[in-house]
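Would you mind giving me a polypeptide sequence along with per-residue structure tokens?
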Amino acid sequence: MTGPSVGTFFAEDVAAPLGADFHIGLAPEHDHRVAALVPAPEGDRPEGFTLAVSDASTAAWRRAQIPAINGHGNARSVAAVQSILACGGSAGGVRLLSQTGCDRVFEEQFHGRDRVLQRPIRWGMGYRLEGRTCSWGGWGGSLVLVDVEHHMTASYVMNQMLCTDDNMRALSILIAAYGALTT
């Protein structure tokens, strides 16, 4: 490998310019800021999960730089990063993507039954697609939704893991966000 690690690249070239307190791999000096994960009522490792909540609470996990599953931040920082896509590649005076790059996210890569989620779904470049919105859900119920038509990003993160609430906590945030657009 040459060049910076993915965590360093993200910190320097994405998070810092946006003022987003989001990390891929967390440095030890931030450990005291991390809320403890609370296991779902189904237990530390619900059926079908390969990762336990207790695994994600270790220093080794926090230091790992695994972009798809090991981001550390709050809802504000997730929304700040994703606002780049919602605003055509530029947000807060920072351009990170071209409009063409943003449009690539919506190029369908898969349309069918998702083997993990066990439901029909459309996937673009890293996001679930639905019209001109795209979304990404995280372990235990977190969610980010990007709506390019409304130039809106809504994000929800939590530390209380739930596996069976059908994302109702996150969906209530989205309903409120869309309600604010119409009032």
